[in-house]
Amino acid sequence: EALEAMSARLIPAVDGRPGARDAGAVHFIDRALATFNAGARGLYADGVAELNRQAASLVPGARFAALTPSQQDGVLRAIEQTPFFGAARFDIIVGTFGLSSWGGNRDGAGWRIIGFEHRPRFEAPFGFYD
């Protein structure tokens, strides 16, 4: 839930458009940590623990996901230069905008954010083409 809350703060849903939470970026991260990115499990475990420690320092006993959005932003600013933040930010972006077959970008939500229309094949431009 901490990563899901973090993804919602990094790429939020705005004006009816989906965000990273809607695109299922966390599912991509989960899949990645179970397969090709298994070496980053420790980094993620320590990073999520740090998010929750920072949250508990603001509100005793609170976890990161339970904080208000502005409090979550403050915690994220505090860890912005850490390796965990860099890795999670990268994975959230990939999980939001990558191929759905990788585990994220649920129903093309990430592509709708940027106005990309996925088609099985694209046509060559009209006119002379070499």
What can be said about this structure in brief?
With 130 residues, the chain is mostly helical. Helices cover 55% and strands 0% of the residues.
Task: Provide an overview of this structure.
With 130 residues, this protein is mainly α. Helix content is 55%, strand content 0%. It has helices spanning 2-10, 20-23, 25-34, 41-58, 69-78, 83-97, 109-114. Helix 3 crosses helix 6 (83-97) and helix 4 (41-58) packs across helix 6. The termini are far apart.
Helix-strand layout with pairing:
Blueprint: H1 2-10, H2 20-23, H3 25-34, H4 41-58, H5 69-78, H6 83-97, H7 109-114
Helix pairs in contact: 3-6, 4-5, 4-6
Bulk shape: elongated
Q: Tell me the radius of gyration.
A: 17 Å
Helix content: 55-70%
The count of β-strands is 0
Mean pLDDT: 89
Let me know the largest β-sheet.
none
Along the chain, the helix and strand elements come as HHHHHHH
Note the gap between the termini: 51 Å
Number of DSSP helices? Answer: 7
User: What would you call the structural class?
Assistant: mainly alpha
Based on the model shown, name its key terms.
130 residues, mainly alpha, 55% helix, 0% strand
